[in-house]
Amino acid sequence: MKKIIIYIDGGSRGNPGPSAIGILFCNQKGQKVKEYFEQIGEKTNNEAEYQACIFALQKFKALYGKKLSKNTEIEIRSDSELLVKQLSGKYKVLDEKIQALFLKAWNLRLDFKKISFKLISREKNQEADRLVNEALDASKAVQKLL
């Protein structure tokens, strides 16, 4: 595994409100390898986007170990302009809550050979978005049962 593409998305219903993340791991050919989705509590959209990035990097390291992490190029694809531009050093981080998440994501970069961030359209991030909505809809189903 020389390069892996990770599609990430975070969403909030209410902003802030119930939030979730969706992550899709693909190989160099774009074939799906793994997918994850999870509810993350009350967050803003931007916090959820950062949580998705952090989760993806931590999950990769946990699954494949330090050695493979150091030898793999990671491309994070996101439809969040804020996240991509901040983690690429093009935008300043002004929000205090985002600063803490930014630092966590930034420091995780040290565990990898190379990480790049690519801004993609929402249309190209539909799979990760679907995972976010799946997690949020599951939350609604549980609430209806109670």
TrEMBL record:
- Mind telling me which InterPro entries this protein's record contains? RNaseH-like_sf (IPR012337), RNaseH_domain (IPR002156), RNaseH_sf (IPR036397)
Residues of the RNase H type-1 domain? 1-137
* SUPFAM superfamilies documented for this protein: Ribonuclease H-like (SSF53098)
Pfam families per the UniProt record, alphabetical: RVT_3
Query: Which Gene Ontology molecular-function terms are recorded?
Result: nucleic acid binding; RNA-DNA hybrid ribonuclease activity
Please state what the protein is called.
RNase H type-1 domain-containing protein
Q: Lineage of the native species?
A: Bacteria, Candidatus Nealsoniibacteriota
